[in-house]
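Bench log. Compound arrived from synthesis this morning; before running ITC I wanted a structural hypothesis for how pyroglutamic acid sits in the protein. Inputs:
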Amino acid sequence: MKILLTGFEPFGGEAINPSWEAVKTLHGYRDAVETLELPCVFDLCLEQLGHKVRALAPDVILAIGQAGGRSAISLEKVAINLNEARIPDNADRQPIDTPVVPGGPAAYFSRLPLKRLAAGLRDRGIPAELSYTAGTFVCNHLFYGASHLAEALPQRPRVGFVHIPYLPEQAARHPGSPSMSLASLTAGLAGICDELLAAGRDMREIEAVAGTTH
Ligand code: PCA
């Protein structure tokens, strides 16, 4: 089983992006993990992901991104067909109310067993949650585009997106923001890979209470 893990370059005035800091430490993990750093740029990130996915033919595409302000590892359930950029990306593109894929479905759900993965993380002592919005910026764009691409590939890879908190050195400059150490982030992502490798083709979800009331 091959897992492609991606992280993003820094954006929004940050010097680092915790997603790439954590992902790059997992290159070659258990002989199953390949890694890729993506630009925080609409369209270009999808182009680069597409090249890699076609060359590697992974079973799982797991993309990681920074979500400053979140306090847990967030497993995203939904990718929506909408670009609505609150800030410009790293190439100064700021799409307003455009589709990721013109004519594509409104949304895709992740086909990874997210409740099972979240439970596995909590068992390892790492705060984890399901999330029902990946936002409308480059992360959602990548998640939607990767999900759309996956549907067109013979192996139909499973796609997931994980948002992670700031690193402590970032949170130090954003008073009041939660953070997670690189060690915990890395252990969390390694734990997700372990669960996926153990699950193999049996990606059954567990029955557990989740969801939000608002
Ligand atoms: N987070 C941004 C884009 C890149 C990243 O790491 C987002 O959540 O859209």
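What the model suggests: Residues 8, 11, 17, 19, 40, 65-67, 135, 137-139 surround pyroglutamic acid (CB under 6 Å). The chain has a mean pLDDT of 97.
ITC booked for Thursday regardless.
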